């Protein structure tokens, strides 16, 4: 009975989906990221009450541990970003849009690369003095990649909407009997692409907003971006 109950509990679609999701490094990174930023959110709000200091310390340690774990998971991923950048340059479409997308991928790769150097420096594998410098450069690359993603999404949305208007114009000028199936399929495809690009834009905007959830943090991020890296 116990075996049957356990089998029924474990052997279901939700558990299978969870195992498949967490078996991928990207899946684990997203899971860790959620708990990392949720812990940061709780630390910010609970720190206002001195009675919650013990819990705040636990959550802060959890946040730091997850941040370090994500750094390890990202090691070497900058190569993936460079490959995606090359693919973007070689993909069909507007050349300017492809260049912006490729630049965003390169910037993301730079973030992962320098973030890894910062992590290695804090462990003493590299010069510990340069850890802050590597972290500063990685933050600049991170912000640049998100800004480029936003610009890329806006550029693509503008292009997709122009194409959609042309399709709508063609459809409006055609009689019901003359409507081409290809036109309808292209219209449907463009609507799906616009929806996907809107989601990508929202994601990029959230990526900017999450670490900048407090005015002081916004000022801190701006200072990191504006101030040059300190030479050792």
TrEMBL record:
<keyword id="KW-0576">Peroxisome</keyword>
<dbReference type="InterPro" id="IPR008733">
    <property type="entry name" value="PEX11"/>
</dbReference>
<dbReference type="GO" id="GO:0016559">
    <property type="term" value="P:peroxisome fission"/>
</dbReference>
<dbReference type="GO" id="GO:0005778">
    <property type="term" value="C:peroxisomal membrane"/>
</dbReference>
<keyword id="KW-0472">Membrane</keyword>
<dbReference type="Pfam" id="PF05648">
    <property type="entry name" value="PEX11"/>
</dbReference>
<protein>
    <recommendedName>
        <fullName>Peroxisomal biogenesis factor 11</fullName>
    </recommendedName>
</protein>
<keyword id="KW-0962">Peroxisome biogenesis</keyword>
């Amino acid at each position: 009975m116990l075996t049957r109950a356990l089998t029924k509990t474990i052997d279901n679609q939700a558990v299978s989906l969870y195992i498949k999701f967490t078996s991928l490094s990207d899946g684990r990174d997203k899971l860790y990221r959620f708990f990392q930023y949720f812990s940061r959110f709780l630390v910010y709000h609970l720190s206002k009450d001195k009675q919650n200091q013990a819990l705040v310390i636990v959550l802060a340690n959890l946040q730091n541990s997850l941040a370090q774990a994500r750094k390890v998971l990202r090691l070497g991923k900058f190569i993936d970003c460079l490959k995606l950048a090359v693919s973007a340059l070689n993909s069909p479409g507007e050349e300017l849009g492809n260049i912006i997308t490729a630049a965003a991928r390169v910037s993301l790769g730079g973030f992962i690369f320098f973030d890894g150097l910062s992590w290695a420096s804090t462990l003493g594998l590299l010069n510990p003095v340069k850890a802050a410098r590597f972290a500063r450069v990685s933050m600049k690359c991170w912000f640049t990649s998100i800004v480029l993603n936003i610009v890329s999404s806006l550029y693509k949305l503008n292009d997709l909407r122009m194409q959609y208007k042309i399709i709508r114009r063609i459809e409006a000028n055609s009689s019901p009997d003359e409507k081409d199936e290809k036109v309808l399929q292209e219209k449907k495809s463009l609507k799906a692409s616009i929806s996907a690009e809107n989601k990508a834009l929202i994601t990029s905007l959230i990526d900017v907003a999450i670490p900048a959830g407090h005015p002081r943090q916004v000022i801190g991020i701006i200072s990191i971006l504006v101030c040059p890296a300190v030479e050792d």
